[in-house]
């Protein structure tokens, strides 16, 4: 059997980057597989899914390898402080594993160290961070959030040997606003090429954080997370606005949004969790945004806790900014808003908004007006919401030629009323479309235990059309992966 060349293996393993358990198993196939996969596996050892089978085993092996990689001087230092850590083998590591790391998570280090020892965790974390600073020559991402009870919260790792080289080309920083000022001060001297910055606002905002923001040369992605503590971020806004020419993606979770008008070049705008009894309603700020023009805007996502108090503001915003939108996500429902999407968003390719059963006419209008639409996600449920039959009938009759992906989101434990004959009718209709595109059908079931896939006869129909190529892919997932709305 001929062997795949290393570059082909690398391309294959890149698809497994988020599946650490499978990627880890590739280490054991042969030497070539090991040499290629180990680099990808260790790139970000913190991004594993803890609920997946064998994840704890993977974490344990990573932790053991990290301990084995500690330099002799660190091991001696720990021994002199009566810290004895067992290593899986006395043999030296096969690779310089730590040098492959491109991401450091301070919280991740804390968690791993707790697995190693219940005592003297501060000293162990210190030596691990020393090793990272010394052996990583080009760190890409640093995750450092305040945890005042954590074992490594006050370790001054930016002063460790090698830190200058390690942090010089840092491109992504996720941090809390109340980290010790010395960290921000030193980082602003070491690093000026951040492309992505995420700030979770806590009780204070230091001058040094503002200086770090101001010192960056090419900031493109900015995420601001404000809790209900009412941290005043007014002082930091001038430092943020300084990057209005380079910023292309802006994400705000909580807090005020009025300063968005300064970022006229943004291509992606995400506003999430915009209402609380403490923060008030930032869509009052949206009154000021409705007539601001963002000529480059292509992606708009709004996740609301409560319904919009005034849809007219958003409709005016779409009238001014909808012509170049490719992705639109609004988890709310309003007939006039739906009509404005059909009217003002001709280039839309992907859409999610809530369509009620008495608004199905507006869904038909959207599908017929947005000729470039490729994907929609629609809620299905009881009472006011669409059922599967109505949705499928509308999609097969009204969707444009480019359309190929349908996501059905079950919002409650509705019992499917879709019969296999009706499902068959849908796929016959889809088969007869010209041109005929294979369909991707995704069911997001949540807590629903009676979705259409729970009927054996329905699944037989789906399998039939998968085999014939009418269905390109069929997935059933518990919850939607709207990672843009998740905290980092």
Automatic annotation (TrEMBL):
InterPro entries found in the cross-reference section: LRR_dom_sf
Taxonomy, superkingdom: Eukaryota
Name assigned to this protein: 2590_t:CDS:1
Provenance organism: Funneliformis caledonium
Upper taxonomic lineage: Eukaryota, Fungi, Fungi incertae sedis, Mucoromycota, Glomeromycotina
């Amino acid at each position: 059997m001929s062997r795949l060349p290393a570059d082909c293996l690398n391309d294959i393993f890149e698809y497994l980057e988020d599946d650490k358990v499978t990627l880890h198993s590739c280490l054991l196939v042969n030497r070539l597989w090991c040499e290629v996969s180990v680099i990808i596996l260790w790139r970000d050892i913190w991004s594993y899914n803890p609920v997946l089978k064998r994840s704890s085993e993977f974490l344990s092996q990573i932790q053991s390898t990290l301990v084995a990689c500690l330099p002799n001087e660190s091991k001696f230092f720990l021994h002199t402080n009566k810290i004895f850590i067992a290593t899986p083998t006395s043999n030296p590591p096969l690779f310089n594993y730590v040098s492959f790391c491109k991401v450091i998570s301070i919280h991740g280090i804390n968690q791993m160290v707790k697995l190693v020892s219940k005592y003297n965790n501060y000293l162990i974390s210190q030596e691990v961070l020393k090793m990272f600073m010394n052996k990583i020559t080009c760190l890409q991402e640093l995750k450092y959030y305040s945890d005042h009870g954590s074992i490594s919260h006050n370790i001054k790792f930016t002063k460790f040997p090698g830190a200058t080289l390690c942090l010089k080309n840092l491109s992504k920083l996720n941090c809390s606003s109340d980290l010790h000022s010395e960290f921000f001060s030193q980082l602003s001297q070491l690093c000026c090429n951040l492309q992505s910055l995420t700030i979770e606002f806590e009780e204070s905002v230091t001058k040094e954080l503002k200086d770090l923001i101001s010192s960056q040369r090419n900031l493109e992605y900015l995420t601001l997370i404000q809790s209900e503590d009412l941290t005043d971020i007014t002082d930091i806004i001038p430092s943020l606005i300084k990057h209005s020419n380079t910023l292309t993606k802006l994400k705000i979770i909580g807090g005020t949004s009025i300063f968005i008008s300064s970022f006229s070049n943004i291509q992606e705008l995400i506003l999430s969790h915009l209402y609380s009894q403490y923060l008030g309603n930032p869509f009052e700020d949206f009154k000021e945004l409705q007539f601001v023009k963002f000529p480059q805007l292509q992606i708009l996502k709004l996740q609301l806790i409560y319904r919009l108090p005034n849809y007219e503001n958003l409709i005016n915003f779409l009238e001014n900014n909808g012509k170049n939108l490719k992705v639109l996500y609004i988890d709310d429902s309003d007939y006039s808003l739906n009509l404005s999407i059909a009217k003002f968003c001709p280039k839309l390719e992907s859409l999610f908004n809530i369509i009620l059963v008495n608004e199905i006419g507006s869904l038909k209008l959207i599908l017929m007006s947005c000729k470039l639409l490729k994907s929609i996600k629609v809620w299905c449920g009881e009472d006011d919401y669409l059922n599967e039959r109505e949705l499928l009938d509308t999609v097969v009759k009204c969707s444009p030629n480019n359309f190929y992906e349908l996501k059905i989101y079950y919002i409650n434990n509705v019992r499917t009323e879709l019969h296999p004959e009706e499902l068959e009718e849908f796929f016959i209709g889809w088969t007869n479309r010209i041109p005929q595109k294979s369909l991707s059908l995704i069911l997001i079931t949540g807590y629903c235990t009676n979705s259409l896939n729970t009927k054996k006869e329905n699944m037989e129909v789906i399998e039939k059309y998968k085999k014939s190529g009418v269905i390109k892919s069929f997935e059933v997932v518990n919850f939607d992966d709207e990672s843009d709305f998740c905290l980092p």
